[in-house]
Amino acid sequence: MINLNIYGWNDKLNQLKQESIHKSLYHGRIAIVHRTCYEVVSENGLFQCELTGNKMFGKPDFELPCVGDWVIFQPFDESKGIIVDLLPRERTLYRRKSGTVADKQTIASYVDKAFIVQSLDDNFNVRRAERFIFQIIEAKIKPILVFNKADLVFDKEGIMEATKHLVDQVPMLFTSIHLPHTIYQLRETIAEGETVVFVGSSGVGKSSLVNSLCDIPRLLTSEISSSTGKGKHTSTRREMVLMERSGVLIDTPGVREFGMAIEDAGSLAEILDISDYSESCRFKNCKHMDEPGCAVLEAINNNTLDRKVYESYLKLRKEAWHFSTSEHEKRKREKSFSKILEEVKKRKSNF
């Protein structure tokens, strides 16, 4: 018998299950997503599950079950089942799907903390970190910035200077699998029953960190590339791993680009530590572009606000606006198409 409380099951989830018409069936959490099936952890063990036809077809990909989702399923033998319901998601991390303007991809759900991993072998990029942080905070997930491979020679003062505008929003840790005390500090941030996700670029050492946290190898890792001197990309899927006497880890494949899937950029100024200036602007709806009496622009001219932070703010705000506008237009088209389908159905029923 598996205790699902250590996987995050709680009274609120139980109440949500009682509201389902399938409340008498088994429930569990998705640990791994394959192309056509899902590995679900339940009180009665691990089940290989598929979706019912009405759950599979006609839905956008981001509405299909993902790692971390809680589902209700009907078992049909000792290790197989059919997913019949998906409990409402909370704290779901998305990213904009590559090559699209408004489509989004689900990374994981029911996440408590997200570790943004950047390695100290020339991988550090504060602009990339800001992008992750904004998406994570908007999902009501706590971000933690992890600088990995801290056994290497690196400019710590330079990194702290580049991230000083984030320090009030995001805890920062320096880690290395070769420095056990740093792994211990990382482990201490994860409580039993919590779910944490590791995100970042390829080769930053996410899977190695997960293996170190679990004390035994759980995920595939690779050697350092002889041509680049960096870790090779190893994770090819999202996978949930249970830590002993602690929480649940979700490792994710490395991404070259992390496009934001945000519909409201209202909190961006606060996240990038610009809000203290923007509150002093002459106009409440100041866009901080060329308006008279803009305190943000004045702070840039006085060198009290980093111009690169300001430029990042403008870029991320524009990207969020494009996603929001495109998403709104897409919903309008889908709604219009649904009306047409309903009218066609009515006409057919009249004949």
From TrEMBL:
<dbReference type="GO" id="GO:0003924">
    <property type="term" value="F:GTPase activity"/>
</dbReference>
<comment type="similarity">
    <text>Belongs to the TRAFAC class YlqF/YawG GTPase family. RsgA subfamily.</text>
</comment>
<comment type="function">
    <text>One of several proteins that assist in the late maturation steps of the functional core of the 30S ribosomal subunit. Helps release RbfA from mature subunits. May play a role in the assembly of ribosomal proteins into the subunit. Circularly permuted GTPase that catalyzes slow GTP hydrolysis, GTPase activity is stimulated by the 30S ribosomal subunit.</text>
</comment>
<feature type="domain" description="CP-type G">
    <location>
        <begin position="90"/>
        <end position="258"/>
    </location>
</feature>
<keyword id="KW-0963">Cytoplasm</keyword>
<feature type="binding site">
    <location>
        <position position="286"/>
    </location>
    <ligand>
        <name>Zn(2+)</name>
    </ligand>
</feature>
<keyword id="KW-0547">Nucleotide-binding</keyword>
<feature type="binding site">
    <location>
        <begin position="200"/>
        <end position="208"/>
    </location>
    <ligand>
        <name>GTP</name>
    </ligand>
</feature>
<dbReference type="GO" id="GO:0005737">
    <property type="term" value="C:cytoplasm"/>
</dbReference>
<keyword id="KW-0479">Metal-binding</keyword>
<dbReference type="InterPro" id="IPR030378">
    <property type="entry name" value="G_CP_dom"/>
</dbReference>
<keyword id="KW-0694">RNA-binding</keyword>
<feature type="binding site">
    <location>
        <position position="294"/>
    </location>
    <ligand>
        <name>Zn(2+)</name>
    </ligand>
</feature>
<dbReference type="InterPro" id="IPR004881">
    <property type="entry name" value="Ribosome_biogen_GTPase_RsgA"/>
</dbReference>
<dbReference type="Pfam" id="PF03193">
    <property type="entry name" value="RsgA_GTPase"/>
</dbReference>
<feature type="binding site">
    <location>
        <begin position="148"/>
        <end position="151"/>
    </location>
    <ligand>
        <name>GTP</name>
    </ligand>
</feature>
<protein>
    <recommendedName>
        <fullName>Small ribosomal subunit biogenesis GTPase RsgA</fullName>
        <ecNumber>3.6.1.-</ecNumber>
    </recommendedName>
</protein>
<feature type="domain" description="EngC GTPase">
    <location>
        <begin position="109"/>
        <end position="256"/>
    </location>
</feature>
<dbReference type="InterPro" id="IPR027417">
    <property type="entry name" value="P-loop_NTPase"/>
</dbReference>
<keyword id="KW-0862">Zinc</keyword>
<feature type="binding site">
    <location>
        <position position="288"/>
    </location>
    <ligand>
        <name>Zn(2+)</name>
    </ligand>
</feature>
<dbReference type="InterPro" id="IPR010914">
    <property type="entry name" value="RsgA_GTPase_dom"/>
</dbReference>
<dbReference type="GO" id="GO:0046872">
    <property type="term" value="F:metal ion binding"/>
</dbReference>
<dbReference type="GO" id="GO:0005525">
    <property type="term" value="F:GTP binding"/>
</dbReference>
<keyword id="KW-0378">Hydrolase</keyword>
<dbReference type="InterPro" id="IPR012340">
    <property type="entry name" value="NA-bd_OB-fold"/>
</dbReference>
<dbReference type="GO" id="GO:0019843">
    <property type="term" value="F:rRNA binding"/>
</dbReference>
<comment type="subunit">
    <text>Monomer. Associates with 30S ribosomal subunit, binds 16S rRNA.</text>
</comment>
<keyword id="KW-0690">Ribosome biogenesis</keyword>
<dbReference type="GO" id="GO:0042274">
    <property type="term" value="P:ribosomal small subunit biogenesis"/>
</dbReference>
<keyword id="KW-0342">GTP-binding</keyword>
<feature type="binding site">
    <location>
        <position position="281"/>
    </location>
    <ligand>
        <name>Zn(2+)</name>
    </ligand>
</feature>
<keyword id="KW-0699">rRNA-binding</keyword>
